[in-house]
Amino acid sequence: MMKKLSGSVLVALVGLVLGVIFPSQARAERLVIQGSTTVFPIAVATAEAFMRENPGADISVRGGGSGGGIRALVEGGRIIAQSSREMRHKEKISMRAAGREPVEHIIALDGMAIIVHPDNPVQNLTMEQIRDIYAGRITNWREVGGTPGRIVIVSRDVGSGTFGAFVDIVMEGEAIHPGAIFQASSGALVEAVAGSPAAIGYVGMGFLDERIKAIEVNGVYPTRENVVGGEYPISRPLFYYTAGEPRGLAKRYIDFVLSPSGQRIVAQQGFVPVR
Asked: With DSSP H G I counted as helix, E B as strand and the rest as coil, what are the percentages for the chain, rounded to 5?
């Protein structure tokens, strides 16, 4: 005589059957992308588009700065590290010492824009003038053709890839003046410059909006054409880093970012496609 199944047993069996029939829905593939706040908008937009096309994928994107993302990867994190600077030699050595090979993926190009308040009449600065401002040698806007008044220096924090790239390209290794206002994210830096007519800052092209004004550097404006052509002097690649060649979901996602669809999203976010 067949025994009647209890409700709880029946529910468990139904769940088991559904898990067998629909394994992708029962066990989603997961991926974490972590690091640069500059690359963050690209990662979020491409992850959302990828998940729409791949409902079984679960991708989460975290900020924290390029240094934080690379550090997590070096320490063994199962992530994609997003970075607005190249991985440093000592970081690569540390990772290799742990038996893990860093692999670099250039996903976009960026022109680092020098920004001021829209009311600031200054339209152009040379690289030397920008360096002198951030080193504290030029302290008043009248020294560079602006309205007389103290220059408020706004910078990204020292753990940021944007900070590292700025110091390498613009400062040529020279320290930024300790009186600068350091911001933890590109969004916060934009807010600081938008709120102060005396401020100057620097951000990736994807963060430009009507609240701030990007100025020319050496007479060249930060545009896609000027970055691709090499005319804009503060340009850089944007990176994803993986431990070894990516596999599974990580590989499919990175392939999507580098596909025509993914590169269109890169352009929509205000950055420069690499393909």
From this structure: 40, 25, 35
